[in-house]
Design brief:
Keywords: Methyltransferase, S-adenosyl-L-methionine, Transferase. Pfam families: Methyltransf_24. This is S-adenosyl-L-methionine-dependent methyltransferase. By secondary structure, the chain is an alpha/beta fold. It has a single domain (70-241), classed as 3-Layer(aba) Sandwich (Rossmann fold). It contains ten helices and seven strands. Helix 7 links the parallel strand 2 (120-125) and strand 3.
Length: 244
C-alpha cells in the first residue's frame, strides 16, 4: 500500500517531500508553548473585547507558518479535483503550503479538461517576508505548482478586485485569513463565483464567535449559500454557492 500522502494527492516525489518538510516545520512551531499561549490569549481577548487584530499580533505572527493541517490540505485538494476547479482564490497564503495543494489540483484539472480555459490560483499575502518565503517554496515545488500561482502582496481588499477583473468565474475560495476579513473577502469575490463554487473556511467551530458575521451571512438563504461544518480539527466550513 502506498504512503498516505500518495493515496490522497497525485504529485511527484519532489513535491511530496517538500510538503512533508513544510508540514513538519509548521507542526513544530504550532506545538510550542508560546503559540498555545498566544492563541489562548487572543481568543480570550476577542471574547471579552470583540473581534480585533493588533500590530503586536502582526509582529508576533510575522515568522509563523499558520499552515492548514495536512488532512485539511489533502481534503481541499480532493475537493478541487472533484469539482474541476481551475480558477481559485486563497485569502491568506502565509508561507504557501495550502497554495501548493491548490495549484497542484488546478494544474492537474487543466491537463485533464479539454478546451482553452483560464487556470489561475490567486494567492494573497499582506506580509512581504511571508510572500518571499512562499515564492521560494513554490519555486522548489517546480512546474507542477509554480506556473499556476498569481501572488498578490498587500491588502487584499485593494489588490484582489483588480485581479478578479481579469479572471474568469471563480470555482473555489479558501478563507484562511483573520476573521474580520472573512466576510468582506467573500462579498468581494461573490459576484465572480460560479454556481456550484465551493468556499472553505478554517476553524469555524473553535472561532465560531469571531466568525459570527460570516456565518450569519452564509446561513441566510437569501444570499445563496448552503453550508455545513465538517469535523476537522477546530471545524472546517464547507459552503456551496447555489444562487436561485
Amino acid at each position: 500500500m502506498p504512503p498516505k500522502p500518495l493515496r490522497t494527492i497525485a504529485a511527484s516525489p519532489r513535491v511530496v517531500s517538500l510538503l512533508d518538510k513544510l508540514h513538519q516545520q509548521s507542526q513544530a512551531q504550532e506545538s510550542t508553548l508560546s503559540m498555545y499561549a498566544f492563541w489562548i490569549g487572543y481568543l480570550l481577548k476577542s471574547f471579552f473585547l470583540g473581534n480585533f487584530w493588533s500590530q503586536k499580533n502582526d509582529d508576533y505572527m510575522r515568522d509563523k507558518f499558520i499552515a492548514l493541517e495536512r488532512e485539511k490540505c489533502e481534503f481541499i485538494y480532493l475537493l478541487a479535483r472533484a469539482t474541476g476547479a481551475r480558477n481559485i482564490v486563497e485569502a491568506g497564503t502565509s508561507f504557501g503550503v495550502s497554495t501548493t495543494y491548490l495549484a497542484l489540483a488546478a494544474g492537474q484539472n487543466a491537463q485533464t479538461q479539454p478546451g482553452e480555459c483560464d487556470t489561475k490560483v490567486i494567492a494573497t499575502e499582506k506580509e512581504p517576508t511571508k510572500a518571499a518565503k512562499a515564492r521560494e517554496h513554490w519555486k522548489d515545488a517546480g512546474e507542477e505548482v509554480e506556473p499556476y500561482i498569481t501572488l498578490l502582496e498587500g491588502d487584499l481588499l485593494d489588490t484582489l478586485p483588480v485581479e478578479l477583473d481579469s479572471t474568469g468565474p471563480i470555482d473555489l475560495l479558501l478563507l484562511d485569513i483573520w476573521t474580520p476579513l472573512a466576510l468582506p473577502t467573500l462579498q468581494l469575490v461573490q459576484p465572480k463565483l460560479r454556481p456550484g463554487a465551493v468556499i472553505i473556511t478554517d476553524l469555524t467551530q473553535v472561532a465560531k464567535g469571531l466568525y459570527k458575521e460570516l456565518l450569519d451571512y452564509i446561513y441566510d438563504p437569501k444570499n445563496g449559500f448552503r453550508t455545513m461544518t465538517t469535523p476537522f480539527n477546530g471545524g472546517l466550513e464547507v459552503t456551496v454557492y447555489l444562487p436561485e
